[in-house]
């Protein structure tokens, strides 16, 4: 999605209507993506202070990990993923019904 406004969308996360717990998870997921070897127990303290359980933290890390693997495979195999209009359409559908088919 390089050059497609991804930076703008990431900046919008600061004003997104998400729970404080989800918002606190974003820096952890970002650090996992950019410097996983530097994650330390202190990174999880804000989550725990908000009542996020270790099971929920583990689940979020697993989901992010799987997305990272899928993205790397897609890049390596040069998958065609569509243009911004396709992403917008998919996002609208996911927001409307979630991941349930």
Notes on the structure:
The chain is mainly α and 101 residues long. The chain has a single domain, classed as Up-down Bundle (AhpD-like). Helices cover 68% and strands 0% of the residues. The chain contains 5 helices and no strands. The longest helix is centred in the middle third of the chain and has 23 residues. The protein is globular and about 40 Å long. The mean pLDDT is 84.
Any chance you could write out the topology, listing elements then pairs?
Blueprint: H1 6-12, H2 20-35, H3 41-49, H4 54-76, H5 84-97
Helix pairs in contact: 2-3, 2-4
**Overall morphology:** globular
The domain tally reads 1
User: CATH superfamily membership, which one?
Assistant: AhpD-like
CATH fold node name? AhpD-like
User: Would you count the extended β strands for me?
Assistant: 0
Radius of gyration: 15 Å
Mean pLDDT: 84
Proportion of strand residues: under 5%
User: Which spans have pLDDT < 50 for at least 5 consecutive residues?
Assistant: none
CATH class: Mainly Alpha
Main sheet makeup: none
How many helices in DSSP terms?
5
- CATH second-level architecture: Up-down Bundle
Q: Secondary-structure element order, as H and E?
A: HHHHH
**Computed structural class:** mainly alpha
Q: What's the N-to-C terminus distance?
A: 25 Å
Relative helix content? 55-70%
Attribute tags:
101 residues, mainly alpha, AhpD-like, globular
